[in-house]
Amino acid sequence: MSGASPVWVGRDGAVGVIELARPDKFNCLSLSVHGAIAAALDEFEAPGSGVRAVLIRAQGKHFCTGADLDEVKRLRSHPADIEHFIRYGHVVLQRMEESPLPVVAACQGLALAGGSELMLACDVVFASSDFKIGDQHAQYGLVPGWGGSQRLPRIVGLRRALDLFYSARWIDAPTALAWGLVNYVVEPDKLADASMAYCTQLASRSRIGLATMKRLARQGLDRPLNEGLEMEQVQISRELLNDDVSEGLAAFEARRPPVFKA
Question: Taking the complete model, does pTM exceed 0.90, yes or no?
Fold first, then answer.
């Protein structure tokens, strides 16, 4: 992509990379950024793409400090435009959650407001040891606009989420790890390699198997346990017949790494 693009999209083997590329604006989110993320997912998920995992990362000091407020100011005078701005952000983040590919975030510096909402929509999160996350909407008379009010309580619990909303305070990487907001904390100079190594490992797995586990886990969250268990039972009965399972069982018997083709 050109240097003027707000997002750089590329590949490292079977790992698709989406890199926020507005370091001068702390990688703030705009319609064009969300559009580039959606287009990248379309590209990576296309049949024959060879991509098996997605890494979202950012250039510069901070992962993402929220929405592009200059764009918000311009759009506020047109109610239909601001509604589209909010709705499209929702669509793209939900698209990440529903992607059949694992979506991993690598976060450094700050993830604030809309930046935290982007992170919350990912499946697995790596954070640098200097990382901080917060929701500052209340400080400016705003409310979360891209799913934060729903995703954050589901991850950290109601009381912790409300505290973060009300206080607008930032929490550090060790606290984010203890609360389940991030999965791994590494030194800043190890973030790029650690997150890519993890995605490369995911890319060696069965694409069908990972997609099925992601779908079952996410869809089961909002269902009674007995419905989720039934959904799993139906799915595994189908999955046991696919070619990836045949390859996995053959590899186990031969004591070799499986080579999945799907």
Answer: yes
